[in-house]
Write a structure and sequence with these properties.
775 residues; alpha+beta; Monooxygenase; Jelly Rolls; 5 domains; globular; oxidoreductase; metal ion binding; metal-binding; iron
């Protein structure tokens, strides 16, 4: 029924009365708060008022509530509210009562209207031109390598013409053949959600979501191995240097992608700065791409200054095309194209891209590392943060001082295709309200200010980007970014496997190892140690560190050399000191364990002095002069003491337990001093390499042998605390009590090791208490 003009004038706004004190909050914030409630609390809130009823019955809200609670297989029930009620085990008779929504007048919301529009809009009428991504037919490997690989995107035709998937990967056919198999779903929640193929296809045809779920499964080859037979990697992308990693060590690299109209991938840069190819089998996709370092309008990039982890806040693909794309001047618009069935899009390393499905689509994509992007992948996994921010955000990631240094110390080609924005100094770029942002207004000549500034100074060149590596951070002791595609141990094994298995790439692998591992620095140390102890120089096969530990380890012909760097100098000194004291005890008591422990050939300290490496021997007793100058120890010690032995380490751990998280350790400034140890090399393989090859009898024999050696280990005498220079030092720890007074911990006649243990626990308790109070 239509409302007359007189009646319309009499309708009052429900918002103030319906929200009460909450009326000061924008609708977007209220909806965000509701997202964090449980389904039952949202249902209760809907009873508070007519306005809360409207806000609490939105499908996008119930979609988020479902995805935040489900963890595993999901079955869509026709609406997200019904799906949530089903997950809550609400009886069907109660579900039917709330099936028909109530209608209210007197309330309007632009935010809710935009969401509703995005949920129900159709893209069939969207008129896109052919785009400006170059389209190519027959491309030779040589032409692709010279013109496109690592340089610019290209849309390739004909690469999938012979694939069986061109005829069999229609949505209905996939549902018929793989209907009962569960595939992984991509969505904003951190939960691992899957849906059976038949349930997902049903969802595709029923849903009206603003950001629909889509299948994005990196394990589809394991779920349905026959799918791997339906396509092959095009000849242009055969080289993949991650292939030398086996099984779970290899990061995810291929995905099956199925999505309905309006779904897609929001703005992102592919992980580890890898390159990618994406082949479409049915439907149409719209692509938008920006060169490295140019952040799209509406995207927020955060760079963690501890480990370099990069996180991105971005609108959905559909929202960006509807709300942000129309605001761009022609000069600021992305590179675009519409991908048709059978076509392959190539995305080079570091390029921003966003994909919108114009109709239901099926595609397959793979990321890869080849000779063109290898150094960039190594750079992305190097420790620190500045270079990661620069790779994705350009010079926006730098502060004022860094930008001044850049302008003073670097010449660059202003005619080169390079990008920057020198107007911001934050390590993030945030664009929330583009209409009100003066940086995106158009100048009189039609070119936006941000575009003018963007083409200055930044170059996606490995030498340029490597300038921003944090030289004081190293791969072994710095935090490892959670966004890295592989762990630090896998990183070393990957480079080692390439070094041994692909000798023709050694020059390239060495460049990558120098970026990611600072391999050149550790090799200089290794050569100095070998020269000092009259060992042969390392051969070409021995130049890279090996092992899965947290320190650089080198296997030479007859010995193993370990340089201790983990935790800083003080921690490294205690690590080596306790190890040498252990060997001393073994020899003193002539333990049979000595026959099964590698012989120590030498140990010492290597340090940088006026740009030159120097070495001093050290057997674990006393304190070398170079270490004494670092003020790591207290004054009372004797020349023949194991000052950095087990008792010193215990007190060090006690001090560390009570130290605030942000307080630097004593050795923070001593970053160019490293202890080392040389032992006789053990021949053979580590257990992890032999685990699957050993018989049951061999496993029992190994277990028996290790049990015997463990007994020998426990029979060793514990170093006496009386011989420790720290035994008479009382570390008094103040503890808070309920009445607010502070008292010293009691020190009854108990073993020294118990005292250290109690002190350590007390310190940690104080740390936890302080953090909770601050929070």
């Amino acid at each position: 029924m239509e409302i007359s003009q007189v009646e319309a004038l009499e309708i009052k706004d429900r918002r103030a009365e319906g929200l009460g004190n909450l009326q000061v909050l924008p609708d977007e914030l209220i909806c965000s708060i509701l997202d964090n409630l449980t389904p039952r609390d949202v249902a209760r809130s809907a009873c508070a008022s007519s306005v809360m009823y409207i806000l609490c019955n939105e499908e996008p809200l119930w979609m988020n509530l479902c995805l935040n609670r489900v963890n595993g297989p999901l079955q869509y029930k026709g609406s997200w509210k019904k799906t949530a009620l089903d997950l809550e085990n609400v009886p069907e008779e109660y579900q039917e009562r709330c099936g028909k929504p109530l209608q209210f007048n007197g309330f309007s919301s632009l935010f809710l209207y935009k969401r509703l529009y995005r949920c129900h809009t159709t893209l069939s009428g969207f008129n896109f031109d052919d785009g400006n991504v170059e389209r190519k037919g027959d491309v030779s490997l040589e032409e692709f390598s010279q013109e496109y690989d690592g340089r610019k995107p290209v849309l390739l035709a004909g690469l999938a013409d012979t694939w069986p998937a061109r005829n069999t990967w229609a949505i209905d056919q996939l549902s018929l053949k793989y209907g009962d198999l569960a595939f992984r779903i991509s969505q904003s929640s951190s939960k691992k959600i899957s849906m059976k193929m038949k349930d997902y296809v049903s969802y595709m045809y029923l849903q009206h979501d603003e950001d629909p779920l889509y299948i994005f499964d990196d394990k589809f080859g394991e779920t349905a191995p026959s799918l791997l037979k339906d396509y092959n990697v095009p000849h242009l992308f055969q080289e993949d240097l991650f292939e030398v990693l086996d099984g779970e060590q290899r990061p995810p690299f291929r995905w099956l992608i199925i999505g309905p109209e309006r779904s897609g991938a929001s703005w992102h840069v592919d992980p580890a700065l890898t390159s990618a190819w994406n082949t479409l089998l049915c439907g149409r996709k719209r692509w938008a791409l920006y060169p490295p370092g140019r952040v799209p309008l509406g995207v927020t990039v955060h760079v963690n200054e501890d480990d370099g982890d990069v996180t991105i806040d971005t609108p959905s693909s559909l929202q960006w095309w509807l709300d942000f794309y129309p605001l761009l001047a022609d000069e600021d618009k992305p590179i675009e194209c519409t991908q048709l069935p059978g076509e392959t899009v190539f995305v080079p390393s570091g390029w921003w891209h966003c994909v919108l499905n114009l109709e239901p689509t099926v595609a397959v994509t793979q990321n890869f590392v080849n000779s063109k992007n290898f150094e960039y992948v190594c750079l992305d996994m190097a420790p620190g943060y500045r270079h990661k921010g620069v790779c994705r955000v350009g010079l926006l990631a730098l502060d004022d001082s860094s930008l001044e240094d850049l302008k003073m110390n670097m010449d660059y080609d202003k005619d080169d295709l390079s990008y920057a924005d020198l107007t911001r100094k934050e390590k993030r770029i945030r664009v929330q309200e583009p209409i009100a942002d003066p940086r995106y207004t158009t100048t009189a000549n039609g070119v936006s200010k941000s575009y003018d500034l963007w083409k200055q100074g930044f170059s996606y060149d490995i030498k340029f980007l490597a300038m921003y590596l944090d030289k004081e951070r190293n791969h072994y002791s710095s935090p490892w970014s959670s966004s890295n595609s592989i762990g630090p141990r896998e990183m070393r094994e990957w480079l080692s496997n390439l070094w041994v298995g692909r000798p023709e790439l050694r020059e390239l692998v060495w460049k990558g190892a120098c970026i990611a591992l600072q391999a050149d620095k550790w090799l200089d140390c290794l050569e100095e140690i070998c020269a000092f102890h009259n060992f042969p120089s390392p051969t070409a096969d021995e130049k890279l560190p090996v092992g899965t530990g947290s320190n650089p380890v080198y296997l030479l012909a007859d010995c193993a050399i370990k340089i201790l760097v983990e935790g800083g100098l003080e921690a490294a000194m205690y690590a080596l000191g306790t190890e040498l004291e252990f060997y001393s005890v073994l020899s003193k008591v002539n333990s049979p364990l000595k026959n099964h422990v590698p012989e120590v050939l030498a140990s010492g300290i290597i340090y940088l002095d006026n740009g030159a490496l120097k070495t001093v021997p050290w057997d674990g007793k006393g304190v070398p002069i170079v270490i004494g100058n670092c003020n790591l120890i207290l004054e009372n010690w004797k020349e023949d003491d194991f000052v950095f032995g087990v008792w010193g380490k215990k007190h060090f751990e006690c001090r560390q337990a009570g130290m605030p998280m942000n307080e630097p350790i004593n050795s923070a400034g001593c970053t160019s001093i490293w202890p080392f140890i040389i032992t006789r090399r053990c021949k053979g393989k580590i257990f992890a390499q032999l685990r699957d090859m050993l018989s049951w009898e061999e496993m029992l024999n190994l277990t028996s042998f290790l049990g015997e050696q463990l007994r020998n280990l426990h029979l060793l005498p514990y170093p006496s605390s009386k011989n420790s220079s720290f035994s008479d030092i009382e570390l008094k720890v103040k503890l808070p009590f309920a009445d607010g007074y502070m008292e010293d911990i009691p020190t009854p006649e108990i073993p020294e090791e118990w005292k250290v243990f109690i002190r350590t626990l007390c310190r940690r308790k104080m740390n936890v208490t302080n953090r909770l109070e601050n929070w």
